[in-house]
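User: Teach me something about this protein's shape.
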Amino acid sequence: MSQTEQSLHMAIDTGGTFTDVAVRAADGTMNVWKLPSTPKAPEQAVIAGLKGALDRVGGAPEDLTRFVHGSTVATNTVITRDGARVGMVTTKGFRDVLAIAQQARPSIYDQHQRRPEPLIDRKFIVEAHQRMDATGQVIVDLDETALRTTIEQLRTFKLDVIVVSFLNAYVNPEHEHRAATIIQAAGVAQQVVAATDVSAEMREYERTSTAAINAYVSPRISNYLHQLEHGLTESGVQTGWRIMQSSGGLLSPSDAAEHPARTVLSGLAGGVVGAANWAKHLNLKRVVSFDIGGTSTDIALIRDGIPDETLSSEIAGLPMKLPSVDVHTIGAGGGSIAWLDSGGGLRVGPHSAGADPGPISYQRGGEHLTVTDAHAVLGRLGDELLGGEFTLDVPAARAAMTDWGKQLGLSAEDTAEGILKVVTATMARGIRKVSVERGVDLRACELMAFGGAGPLHGADLARELNMRSVIIPPRPGIASAVGMLDAPIRYDYATSVNVNAPDALAALEVTYHEMQAQARADLDHPEAETHYEFLVDARYIGQSYELTVAWDADWDTQRQIFDRAHEENYGFADPDAVMEVVVARLVVTQPVEHGALESVASLSPEVTPTDHRDVYIDGAWREVQVYDRTTFGDGTVVEGPAIIEQFDSTTYIRPDQLAQNDTYDFLHIRLAADQEQS
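Assistant: First, the predicted structure itself:
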């Protein structure tokens, strides 16, 4: 993946509304493009984006030396419930493991709240006679004859995939693998998967749910990747390509087809990876990654250039036991709809107008006022987006805002400002969730705002939360695609263990050697630079959940590492409790060569407004200067209030703030000097 002067790096991020394309040349020059997604055949937008972007930069398919793709296909398949027909074979007595789930309730005081229905219908689940104990010892042998008879019940359902999930198989998968072989030979379904091959960790519900999600999206992802592979080959792309996975690393297409659940959070991971790399470049200690799209806002905490990770995420209320960037998503975005609750209070979201029909100002038949409409009415948005390719009907939004505001006794402007204040409060709660609730002082954090609407809200949020500054990356509206360009290749491995004594901890070296051997077999290029990170899941005996910390073969050192992590996360350590290690983990990464950052050092810091317009700020109209961000050089300073426009986003600066551009075109928004003194 080394660069030459002719080499091009490309990343394409496919969302439900738009497909974003980023192309980087060897000198760091970045070109970006947006085009409408094609949800019924997502690969069509990817191929169109690839060809169109190459035409724009005067490149050819053979010039591509890196191609990375992020997709929401798996995400949308689960959310819309249009995946495969999945069946399951489980241990006798555990047919309802997915329906019973766990004791935690989605909303403990809401008697009407219900869990989402399992992805596997109960009538598609049968039981097998077998049993393992918690140590992996066989209690009841697998009755193969009975299994062959039982699975015939599933044949008439014409299932796409069958999951085999047996109790305690994460310790000993022998029965699962044998059952999967028998079912595959019987031809009851096109595909049969052992749950331990998807997630080999304890907690039966979470492990089975993960396997169910993997099976549910598998046929669609496999078909999608096959179609995309064919399209890339037909287009003349010669370089190998990679898929963004939820953990922030890259997978090969074949691995993604085998483990599609690892791509469920693919779309939002790219932006977090980009924000983490930019935080390292800017030498920032604490950064909140803040990505606002049309429907939702994705928020993540980055410490010392490393995003927080989680081993237990959710998609549409269903748990997944796989590594992923720890992103908190809220239903607040540019398309979020304003409404009144039963008490007459103003609310915004989580319902969204989407892209079709979209906000009223989109001129596509939208009937509900949205956050985007509020920005348009207040003058923060002009009457054009995407460099003039998209026209907003501001008068229509104003007329609708006037009519709707009458029920509140407010003018159109005050109604619009109220909508933004409500959504700002919602977003602020989301930011506190990943920071204050984890013991991090927001006053020591920077806000990295991106996504199409992130720069519009960053200034208000920094003021609301008293954060140090807002940082707008060079291409905020395409940040997820740009972030993917420098993501590493990554594989994750986990082995359940039972260690609560010094001798057993040192013996984990054998376990790590076995996982390293598996990694070398899985890597396409094992000879390349490879980093191995050895981790353990540890807890005090009696606790229900674990902390993932670095592994050390010395028991006392391992105890110190765990105690520090426990105190940092929960405010205390327990010197009298016994520590136990329950999982050994190996994270394998192969970093790619980071491309050069585009410099604006050659541009003059002096800029002049390209336009001016009236903007409604804090209850009054003010004339505000409008600037073109592409003219900003190193050291450009713009005092608020101001509007900064570019192809993929619009940035708003409050009257008490100023924005300063750096050498690499990152825009830093902070309080003006006189405001800091006051």
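Now, about its shape. The longest helix spans residues 204-235. The chain is about 30% helix and 30% strand. If you'd like, I can walk through any region in more detail.
User: That's plenty for now, thanks!
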